[in-house]
Amino acid sequence: MTRDPRPSAARLDNLSLRDQLGVDRLPLRALQMMVGLTGFGFSLALLLESGLGGAPWDVLHTALADRLDLTVGTLSVSVSFVVLLLFLPLRERIGIGTIANAIWVGVSIDLGMLVLPEARGLPLAVAMMLLGVVLNGISGAVYIGAQLGAGPRDGLMTGLGRVLNRPVGPVRIVLEVIVLITGTLLGGALGVATVVYALGLGPIIQLTLPYVTIPVRTLNGRAIAAPTVPQSEPAPGPAQPR
After folding, report:
1. C-beta separation of 31 from 212 below 8 A
2. pLDDT tens digits for the chain (242 residues)?
3. Other Cβ atoms closer than 10 A to 89
4. Where are the bilayer-spanning segments (predicted)?
5. 184 touches 59 (CB < 8 A)
């Protein structure tokens, strides 16, 4: 049988923490994960500094931060660990990337907001908004593709996609809309960037993920002949996708 050469042939494996520690090319995966997480956090800071609104989750984070007099990054970390509780009913495994995401994205947001200037003028604001959305989607796919465990929010996305047998693009949109409504009701920073992010993130991840996924070839020194995900797992592309 001829192997499918298309990027969509790369699949996501729901690896346990033990398997992640024994997976092939671990240093490369760890580097890719941290690059993705750093870009993810900075992209969220770009959106906030654009002044056109934050990502749906950050609408919630900013609302809570204002009420509690804390930084957005601090609330991001706190909410991440709350979201991790939802991994239990989805049987989503907590991995290296899950914990790294929960902590480092929030740190990167605060660092980004320290070094990035606030947008002055609409053209710059729009440019920062668009760059933030694109960078966020690509960065999310980069760290998911490292296969060291999805972050709390992306674990919800991939977990629900697997359980419901649905593409992650639409699943992500539904999650973002639910969080957006909650954050808005609490008085978060809603803006045009919020809508662009909510609608654009899932498709960007879906398009990028096949190109940045590092396939699992060996576990604990043993070669595997095929992807370990169920055959019902949605494939990246028209039918499928932190």
Report:
1. no
2. 444 444 444 577 778 788 888 888 999 999 999 999 999 999 999 999 999 998 888 999 999 998 899 999 999 999 999 889 888 888 887 889 889 999 999 999 999 999 998 888 899 999 999 999 999 999 989 988 998 987 888 778 878 888 888 887 788 778 878 888 898 899 887 899 988 987 888 889 889 999 999 988 888 777 775 544 444 444 443 333 33
3. 9
4. 26-48, 68-88, 95-116, 122-144, 173-199
5. yes
Residue 6: Cβ-neighbour burial (10 angstroms; 0-12, 13-18, 19+)? exposed
Rounded Cα distance between 35 and 150, Å, is: 14
Domain spans, the chain = 25-213
231 half-sphere exposure, CB direction, 13 A CA radius:
0
User: Is residue 216 within 8 Å of residue 149, measured between CB atoms?
Assistant: no
